[in-house]
Amino acid sequence: MQIIRTSSSTTAGRRPAATGVVAAGIALALGLVLVGCTDGGPEPTPAPTATETDAAEAGITDIVDTPGSGEGLVGALADAEVTTCELSGDHWEVAGTVTNSSDAAASYRIYVSLLTEGGDTRSLTQVNVDPTDPGASADWATTVAVQDEALDCVLRVERYAS
Question: In whole angstroms, how large is the CA radius of gyration of the chain?
Fold first, then answer.
């Protein structure tokens, strides 16, 4: 008669047989996985989808100055307000006002981005506002030749001392 022990006790320097079998099984499985992952073939190259290609080609950038590149700029998003942001036929009309909150005359550089719901930029347009006296307001407007529907208008506003 054969006696089978299910105890996990060990004798000095030896591990239970069940632990050794489990360890050997794990090592064998890892070895098979590694062999399957290293086929030596070339890495796949992702190809852009049709919508990614179309979006990249249709985007519009109409800026003269790189955002953040001017000397002495102050971020002034709170100074600007968007009053119109709508698709009108084959273009977007974006307009608003800017109110100089500083103590001196200031010029503004407004960057208008039209973004998809997913956050993709469909256009970036620069609007310059002439020097405006402290506390005074000035209107600004631009049109963007993008026909996409359901875009959000997002501003970056930079104020410069005049």
Answer: 32
Contact by Cβ (8 Å): 92, 86: yes
Beta strands in the chain (DSSP E): 60-62, 74-75, 80-88, 91-99, 106-115, 121-132, 137-144, 152-161
Q: Rounded to whole angstroms, how far apart are CA atoms 22 and 26?
A: 6
The C-alpha atoms of residue 122 and residue 113 are separated, in whole angstroms, by 7
- Per-residue pLDDT tens for 70-96? 899 999 999 999 999 999 999 999 999
Taking the model in full, what pTM does it have? 0.65
Closest CA to 144 of 89, 83, 94, 110: 94
User: How many whole angstroms separate alpha carbon 120 and alpha carbon 12?
Assistant: 65
Per-residue CA distances from 35 to 21, 29, 73, 128, 132 (Å): 21, 10, 58, 61, 70
Pairing verdict, β 60-62 and 74-75: unpaired
